[in-house]
Specification:
Rossmann fold; Dihydrodipicolinate Reductase, domain 2; 2 domains; globular
Length: about 325
């Protein structure tokens, strides 16, 4: 392999156009080489030199490709990642990684046997709002954390046509937005001691869950609550953290997805910056019970960090940011 990772996308829908292609083309270590387009061939209109294949099997026969990005519906992840590893490709898999932890363990074992990198795409670790939570928690300003609430909500009353709305492996809101929240919790707090999960189906005629709540317990009596719903019309705080010295509240404010959909380039100076007046609020109490309230500006969000990490792992053998155990913990909760 040269110092350029030649990459193939298994889909050129929203995720391919928005979350992968712009970064692959902007990063000097990657080449967007090929894409699977099962019906319309449109990728060449944006990327004139790209190769378009009509099937996954066809793109996997391209020996020039080093890395395959599995960005198809969750129910296909296991099958397509398995095929890619059998062709001795490195593989980057979107959330949810697979439908079960057993599938994930099998894929990780095969990757090791073929000396391939099998990696999870968890871009929300580089949202500006979540990064501010990590900074505040690790700063110690809250003292010992005793309670944490993570939410990811939308209002979507209608039943959409996508695969996540069709009953089957990896469908439903729990496997759609749940992996983002669980990955963030596990990245920050580690493996839970125990958990209790509630799923709900509340939209008229829904065939899959559209509500999930998970209560996770941790050492030192830390209680973590994860909630996601498709019936939240009034936005709630995305992160509420309480500790022995104070509290931190942050709304979901990351701009990257909206900017990418608007066509703002990843190299634009404003890319990843939050809008004004969206700071998190840190409230602390001193030993005399004197309250201090300050606004905490967020770091610049940047999904390019995912691709920096992928490159460093494949080309420099550095440990990947999302570990195999992170994925197994997450899937054990989702499949339970």
């Amino acid at each position: 392999m040269s110092n350029i990772i030649r990459t193939g996308l298994l889909s050129f829908g929203m995720s391919g156009k928005v979350f992968h292609a712009p970064f692959l083309t902007a990063h000097s270590g990657f080449e967007l080489t090929a894409v699977v387009e099962r019906s319309k061939q449109e990728a060449h209109k944006i990327y004139p030199h790209i190769n378009s294949y009509a099937s996954v099997d066809a793109i996997l026969l391209d020996k020039s490709i080093d890395l395959i990005i599995v960005n198809t519906p969750t129910g296909t992840h296991y099958e397509f990642a398995l095929k890619a590893l059998q062709h001795k490709k490195h593989v980057l898999v979107e959330k949810a990684f697979t439908a079960t932890s057993a599938q994930a363990k099998e894929l990780f074992a095969l990757a090791k046997a073929h000396n391939c990198c099998l990696l999870a795409y968890q871009n929300r670790r580089f949202d500006s709002d979540y990064m501010s939570v990590v900074d505040v928690v690790k700063s110690g300003k809250l003292g010992s954390i005793v309670e944490a609430h993570f939410r990811f909500d939308r209002y979507k009353h209608e039943i959409g046509p996508k695969a996540k709305e069709i009953p089957g492996e990896g469908s439903g809101l729990s496997y759609d937005l749940g992996p983002h929240l669980l990955d963030e919790v596990i990245a920050l707090f580690g493996q839970p001691l125990s958990w209790n999960k509630t799923l709900g189906m509340y939209r008229p005629n829904t065939k899959v869950n559209d509500f999930m709540h998970v209560h996770l317990t941790y050492p030192k009596a830390l209680q973590v609550f994860v909630t996601t719903s498709l019936l939240v019309a009034n936005e709630q705080a995305a992160y509420v953290i309480h500790g022995t010295k104070g509290s931190y509240v942050k709304y979901r404010t990351d701009q990257q997805e909206a900017q990418l959909l608007e066509g703002i380039g990843v190299e634009d100076a404003n890319y990843g910056n939050e809008k004004e007046n969206q700071e998190g609020v840190l409230t602390t109490m001193d030993e005399n019970n004197v309250k201090t309230v300050i606004k905490v500006p967020s770091k610049k969000g940047n999904y390019m960090e995912v691709f920096n990490a992928v490159y460093a792992t494949i080309m420099e053998q550095k440990p990947y940011i999302v570990t195999e155990q992170h994925i197994i913990y997450q899937l054990e909760i989702l499949e339970d």
